[in-house]
Amino acid sequence: MTATVTRKRWVFHVPGYDPAPPEAVRQRFERELRRFEECWSVKAGVSDADGSTETWTVIAAGPNWSAGTRYRLIAWDDVIDAAARKPAWQRIPQGLVAFVDFAIGALPQYLGANWRYAGFFLYPFVTFILFALLAIVVGRLAALAIGWPIVGFIVGLIVAGAALTLLWQWPGRSIFLHLLFDDWIFSRGYLRQGNAAVAAKLDRAAQELVLAARGSDVDEIVVIGHSLGAVLAIELLERALRLEPKLGQEGPRVALITVGSSILKIGLHRAAERFRAAADRVASAPGIFWGDYQAISDIMNFYKRDPLTAMGLEMRDMPLVRMVRIRHMLDPAIYKRIRYHPLRMHLQFVSGNNLRNAYDYFMLVCGPLSVETQVRGDGALAAIGPDGALLQKASV
């Protein structure tokens, strides 16, 4: 297979439910870019673009190639931060309502598609129920110690409430209970009525994408969605297709890459008709290439599942589903250190590798090969030499 070279690309990256602000995301990007340089024996640098904290330019180069990337972060940390500032007396009931909604509308489908993901779904709510039971026991003991029925009952309620509050704050915060509650609350809201703030961001990004496709000299436009961001990335492209139905058929190539995705988190819910229709439209768009990367060691994605057919939609040529092994991306000592940290494993999809691998986020973002070439083939393994030089014959 002849490789297709990319000299200029635009990347629209949609993160998952991550509270990190754009400045922190860029710092993480630059730190992980150093791993990419060392791993592939290349040079790469980041510079500002238009003075925006959500857009920057990446120039990567080897001995005989150079590629420039305009990287656009579709940040929605402000939405996540606003949810995190709500008091517990609002978040806890909303989280429990979300649990019931997904338990009825999606849990049976989760169990059928991937039991590991079903366990991830149950984790925060089962943990909270255990906290509540422990608080009730503590309150009951306090009531018995008082001895007077009415006073004891009142004291028991106060003590139980205080105990639950303490457990919610700690260890609840340290085991990501707050973040996961907010994640499922957002997911239910997105599923049921959408989110106006996120919709506005996606509209702006869709307009930027279409303008880039119509008026720039880039070789390809890549939309990357990580985790719950994969859901939003599909919606972004669906909105862009409304503006330009021939997207990708004329002008630069257009690719969607979903990694560690939560597509089925939303798509398997009985009420997700709107989202399933959007996914089907993107998958059937003739000008859009779609690659979906999954890993068994990441419990936050659905391993070995074609998203479309799992949602009951017609099988199509897209997405092209690829399986990856996170343990083969990292030095054994590093993998051993993070393997029991689910969030860190999940983030490896958007982090730098220590070992050359068919899946490499930064090679997709700023390497010399087109995204489609990498997904259809073996990444850049056969294309980049030990000194970082491009080996394969290539066409533009």
How is this structure best summarized?
It is built from 16 helices and ten strands. The protein has two domains: 3-78 and 196-377, 3-Layer(aba) Sandwich (Rossmann fold); 86-186, no CATH class. It has helices spanning 22-40, 77-84, 88-105, 107-113, 115-146, 149-169, 177-193, 196-215, 229-243, 263-267, 273-284, 307-310, 332-338, 342-347, 361-366, 371-376; strands spanning 3-4, 8-14, 43-48, 55-62, 65-73, 220-226, 253-259, 288-295, 320-324, 394-395.
Number of strands: 10
Measured as a percent range, the helix fraction is: 40-55%
How many individual helices? 16
Beta-strand content estimate: 15-25%
**CATH top level label of the largest domain:** Alpha Beta
- The helix/strand series, from N terminus to C terminus, equals EEHEEEHHHHHHHEHEHHEHEHHHHE
Low-confidence stretches: none
The gross shape turns out to be elongated
- Helices and strands: which structural class? alpha/beta
Largest sheet, if any? 8 strands, mixed
Mean pLDDT: 94
List the helices and strands and how they pair.
Layout: E1 3-4, E2 8-14, H1 22-40, E3 43-48, E4 55-62, E5 65-73, H2 77-84, H3 88-105, H4 107-113, H5 115-146, H6 149-169, H7 177-193, H8 196-215, E6 220-226, H9 229-243, E7 253-259, H10 263-267, H11 273-284, E8 288-295, H12 307-310, E9 320-324, H13 332-338, H14 342-347, H15 361-366, H16 371-376, E10 394-395
Parallel strand pairs: 1-10, 2-5, 2-6, 6-7, 7-8, 8-9
Antiparallel strand pairs: 3-4, 4-5
Helix pairs in contact: 3-7, 4-5, 5-6, 8-9, 9-11
Structure description:
Helices cover 51% and strands 15% of the residues. A hairpin with a 2-residue loop joins strand 4 and strand 5. Helix 3 crosses helix 7, helix 4 packs across helix 5 and helix 9 packs across helix 11. The two termini are 14 Å apart.
